[in-house]
Each structure stands twice: as C-alpha cells, then as structure tokens.
Design brief:
The protein is of the alpha+beta class and 409 residues long. 45% of the residues lie in helices and 10% in strands. It contains 17 helices and 11 strands. The chain has helices at residues 9-24, 56-66, 77-90, 104-109, 128-133, 156-162, 170-180, 196-208, 219-233, 246-254, 268-273, 309-322, 325-335, 342-351, 356-363, 376-391, 397-406; strands at 44-49, 69-74, 96-100, 135-136, 139-140, 146-147, 151-155, 260-263, 279-282, 299-302, 338-339. α8 crosses α9. The longest helix has 16 residues, at 9-24. It is globular, with a radius of gyration of 21 Å. The protein starts with 8 loop residues before the first helix and ends with a helix.
C-alpha cells in the first residue's frame, strides 16, 4: 500500500541540523517569561516548525476545532534552534513551537517552555520512550503525536533466491549478509558517516547489547562495534559506508547494490516508486534475538513561555488537539511515521503493514536524551567517532571506543 509522505530530507534535517546547532550554542535564557507572542490577536496562534505546507491542513483542522486562527511559519531545520534562541532573547517566541525530540529537554532547561500539565495535558498511554524525551526534571514540556525509528529492510526477491530468511540475531545477520553478497551487490548496508546519522544507525546494535552512553568504552559496546567491523571486513558491507548518509544507503538498496539495509519509514516513498522492487522490513537483529532497543525519532509540539496566559491556554488546547488519537493518525498519514499512542499504533500497524516493523520497534525504543538529557550530543559525537576510527582501521573496536570516550567535547 502506498501512503502520502513528506520529503525524507526532513528527518535528515532533524538529525543533523537542529541537534548540531543545539550542541554548539549554550542555552542560558533566564527571564523568558516576558510578553512575547508574535501575534497580538487573542485568537491567532503563531506556529513555528521545520515541516512543509503538507501539514497546514492538519493544523487548520485543529484550529477550527478550538476556534483559533493560525499564522504558520515553516523554517529550515538547521536554523530552527538558532532562531528559537533569538526569539527567546527578544521575547518574540511563537505560541506553538515544534522541536525535534532530542532538543526538547535542552530548550526546556533554558526556561523557554511551559509545563504542559498547566493545560491538563499528559502523555499517558504513549510509547514510554517518547514521553521520556519530552520530560525534563519530572515535568512534561512536549507532546509528540507520531514517531519513527529504524528497521532492517530487505529485498524479498534476493533473499528468496538465496534461500535466506530475514535475520533475527547477529549471527544470522552475518551469515545472511555473506550469502547475499554477490557481484556488485553487498549483503548489507548502513550509514556509518561521522555525523549524528551515523550514531543514530549504530545505536540499535549498541543499546540492544547493553551499551551505555555514559561510558561507551565497555565490553558490550565493543561487541557491537566488532559486529559492524566484521560485516565490513568479510566484504558483506561496503567500505564506503563511512561516507554514506541514510539517503545514500537507500540509493544503494534501490539500485540493487544492497540486499538489506538499515533505514526508516521516511524512505518508503522512494521504495514504493521503484518499479519491480519487492521489499519488506523487520526489527533490527540483536545479539541473542531479544527485543531491539532503537532510537526514537519524530518531533514534539510545545507551548513556549510567551507571557500571554490566555494565548498559552489556547495554544495548550491546540497541542492537545494534535495529540488526540484521531489527529495522531492524520499526522501519521502525512508524515509516514506511526502514532505514539500504543493503542493507536497497534491499530495503525494492522492497516499499514509497511510500517508494522516500526510500530513494533518503537515500543521498546529509547529517547536519545533519555539518560544524558542536554548532554546527549557529546555522547553522540563520541559514538560516531569510535565507529569511524574502527572502520577506517585506525584502531581496534575496543581501542576506538576508549579513545573516543576520553576525548574532550
């Protein structure tokens, strides 16, 4: 079944743009509670996001529900956080602000966001990791209406021809990848680039095996990195993966140069458009076949501290509307993601089989900021640095992790 999706570049902006900017700018925004709503009309809500116009009808549907008008401002993902910082300083924050989920805690720590309990909102019934991503010091600052993660896509014909079943364990993955490597086709592909995308793709192996971002130089983490190095060393994965972003990985899969790949649901438009390509996906294999612990993607809607209490209440109603199960499904249809409400997600998987593996994965997935909060970008940098060191032959997996862990940020 083919669905309506937004551009896959949105996820890339979320991972590489907004988070990267946050990591380089200190958030010291005390005194953000002064009057600052961008619109003086008491019924007009200003909305700021890095989406595109495909989301406007969804916004307007909720605006009609709560009796509000809208002033929608779509900005480039890479510039969103810098813009938010400037707006907080000049007291011109929007009434509703969308943030990539790893950014919520960092912006909340600055004092720029309001506690959503003030509007009677909560994230009860949502994927636990999603709720955790928007929670800072016990208070909920954002509601994420849909989410995504990554899974293992596979070319059904190539696996069938080779007599290979979709792998569930690391050993099965290595065997399958080796068997499927023929001619110009590699058995497996993933992004190991030296950006947050590389970290994002390595996390399921790292976390599922007990890796801990507080200290990445552990035996569990070494096992995970050794797996990736083994896939490269035995020829099952291209050495070019150190330069590939997720879009590049998808292009390899589309071209028939990779039989399996790690990627997300935002690639489905391109996959569905490829004539003759039969594909499916399963959760990313783990060492012993237990549930995958993958990172959660997606964006949360927040209510900034503008100082206009009446409009903040109206904004709270708007965010609450977007979070209803009905609107979660509408947003998932537009974005290609899955509802964050567990009940809605289960129903979504039955009606949208192409994202069933992602619905399964997000149930045990983690927020990237779940353990370190605003300090997550430092750990993310250490992780992709270690992967690069190992795959370029500059250090063994164990030494690479130790070297990366010791680096100053």
């Amino acid at each position: 079944m083919k669905h309506k999706f937004t551009s896959p570049s949105r996820r890339t902006r979320a991972l590489v743009g907004a988070v990267a900017v946050v990591a380089t700018i200190p958030l010291v925004l005390s005194g953000c509670s002064g009057s600052g709503s961008a619109s003086t009309d008491s019924k007009t809500l200003t909305i700021e996001d890095y989406y595109d116009a495909n989301y406007n009808p969804v916004y307007k549907q909720c605006a009609a529900t709560i009796g509000a008008k809208l002033d929608i401002n779509h900005v480039a993902g890479a510039g969103l956080i810098a813009k938010v910082l400037q707006q907080a300083s000049s007291k011109t924050l929007p009434d509703v602000l969308m943030l990539d989920n790893p950014d919520v805690q960092q912006i909340a720590s600055s004092g720029a966001l309001s506690d959503l309990s003030a509007y009677g909102l909560d994230a009860d019934g949502d994927v636990p990791g999603v709720k955790a991503a928007s929670t800072y010091k016990g208070k909920l600052y954002g509601l994420q209406s849909n989410t995504n993660s990554i899974a293992l896509y596979y070319n059904k014909k190539l696996l069938a021809d080779a007599g290979v079943q979709p792998p569930k364990t690391w050993d099965e993955l290595k065997t399958a990848a080796k068997t499927l490597t023929k001619g110009s086709t590699y058995g497996f592909a993933m992004s190991n680039i030296n950006t947050y995308e590389g970290t994002w793709q390595f996390l399921p192996f790292f976390w599922s095996n007990g890796g801990d971002e507080k200290n990445i130089a552990t035996a569990d983490a070494t096992q995970a990195l050794q797996l990736v190095e083994d896939l490269q060393d035995d020829g099952s994965m291209s050495k070019s993966s150190i330069n590939w972003a997720q879009a590049d990985v998808n292009n390899q899969f589309l071209a028939g140069k990779a039989a399996m790949m790690i990627n997300g649901p935002w690639q489905l438009p391109a996959l569905n458009e490829k004539k003759g390509l039969e594909f499916d996906s399963v959760p990313i294999p783990t060492r012993t076949g237990e549930a995958t612990v993958a990172p959660l993607g997606g964006e949360a809607f927040t209510v900034p501290q503008t100082g206009d209490k009446d409009k903040m209440q109206l904004a709270g109603k708007f965010v609450g509307c977007l979070h209803t199960q009905k609107m979660q499904k509408v947003l998932s249809e537009v974005s290609g993601n899955v509802p964050t409400n567990l009940e809605a997600g289960a129903a979504w998987a039955k009606d949208h089989p192409q994202v069933a593996s992602f619905v399964t994965t997000v149930q045990t997935a983690r927020a990237r900021t779940g353990e370190l909060g605003p300090e997550w970008p430092k750990a993310a940098t250490k992780i992709y640095t270690a992967v690069q060191l190992a795959l370029t032959g500059k250090a063994s997996p164990e030494a690479a992790l130790k070297q990366a862990q010791s680096q100053e940020q």
